[in-house]
Specification:
Blueprint (H helix, E strand, L loop, with lengths): L14 E2 L9 E4 L2 E4 H7 L1 E8 L3 H10 L1 H4 L13 E4 L6 E5 L5 E11 L3 E6 L15 E9 L5 E8 L8 H9 L4 H12 L1
Antiparallel strand pairs: 1-7, 2-3, 4-10, 5-6, 6-7, 7-8, 8-9, 9-10
């Protein structure tokens, strides 16, 4: 796979960050050859939900109403959360805004391909602190797949937990638990159904 640096200019067009890593190379681990894909799988959480909307509607609702369905308890602002935003472009900010102008970035858009694909860095540490260095952040990759005329499968993959360093294994377990991504995705499913 080659690094893609495609941009078409408008927010609804295909765009892929030039920062995307090349995957599929081989690496040595204790004299055994493992592909990056095998290593990636060990640090990946995958969950999905099905919603009764078209792919276009589902993608739009996921991004445009994030602050309406995302659990406020899972934000820094909590009960004073005013908005959560994913800017609709590659390198767009993912952030929340609370009272008195409090703003906290929690990611950057890596892939913006509405209505089928969204990927962003997850710049939140295992201690729920912001991670300013994207090299120490995990990634959330979301695909919106048609499953009939008005059914969409939302497939979320959270990967590279190992980049978080100390506490990453427990962090991965927590995000894979019923209170992690399954709970967050159920909130979305409930909000749009």
């Amino acid at each position: 796979m080659s690094v893609c640096n495609e941009r078409k200019g408008v927010s609804g067009a295909t765009a892929v960050s030039p920062l995307r890593q090349v995957e599929g190379k081989m690496s040595t681990d204790k004299n055994m050859m493992k592909s990056d894909t095998d290593i990636l799988s060990a640090y990946t959480v995958r969950h999905s939900v099905q919603v009764p909307k078209s792919v276009e509607e589902t993608f739009g609702l996921f991004v445009d109403t994030l602050d309406e369905w995302w659990p406020a308890a899972y934000t820094w602002s909590q009960d004073v959360l005013q908005e959560m935003v994913i800017e609709p472009e590659v390198n767009g900010r993912c952030y929340e805004r609370g009272l008195h102008g409090f703003t906290c970035d929690w990611g950057r858009v890596l892939i913006w391909q509405p209505p089928h694909h969204l990927q962003f860095t997850w710049q939140i540490s295992p201690r729920r602190e912001p991670v300013p260095n994207p090299a120490k952040a995990s990634e959330v990759d979301i695909h919106f797949e048609a499953d009939g005329p008005n059914q969409t499968q939302v497939v979320l993959e959270h990967r590279h937990f190992d980049r978080h360093g100390e506490g990453s294994e427990k962090y991965q377990e927590m995000m894979d638990s019923p209170q992690g991504w399954p709970y967050i995705l159920r909130q979305f499913e409930t909000a749009v159904s």
